[in-house]
Specification:
This protein is about 60% helix and about 0% strand. The protein has about 120 residues and is mainly alpha-helical. The protein folds into two domains: about 35 residues, no CATH class; about 60 residues, no CATH class. The chain is rod-shaped and about 130 Å long.
């Protein structure tokens, strides 16, 4: 036991006691391996980091894509309403400015109804 203690305390020195028959040489104190995170190369990401980021992006996309589709439909309806309101206003303007006795069916709007057709 004393030899083991002496060999452990002298492991870092340049001279160590010579092993004798029947005794084991103790391993030096710095025999522990470094953690696996210190062994990987300096550049790059681990697989766990990549999977975590991919899962986060997938969750955000799953929440965001339906909202974007709903918003695009809302914008299309708003644009159609605006175009129809413009065409109706132009038709009313033509009807008001037409000489009396002119049938409304003979009036042709110029620009806004061309967009609707």
């Amino acid at each position: 036991m004393i030899r083991l203690y002496q060999s452990l305390t002298n492991a870092g020195t340049t001279h160590s006691p010579s092993p004798q028959l029947g005794t084991r040489q103790a391993a030096p104190m710095n025999h522990c391996k470094t953690p696996w995170t210190a062994q990987r190369p300096a550049g790059g990401f681990s697989l766990l980091e990549l999977v975590t980021v991919f899962a986060g992006i997938t969750i955000l996309a799953a929440l965001g894509i339906p909202n974007v589709i709903n918003y695009l439909n809302y914008v299309r309806v708003k644009e159609a309403k605006a175009t129809l309101n413009l065409a109706a206003a132009e038709c009313l303007q033509l009807a008001r400015n037409a000489p009396s006795g002119t049938p409304i069916t003979s009036l042709t709007p110029t620009s806004s109804l061309q967009q609707v057709r």
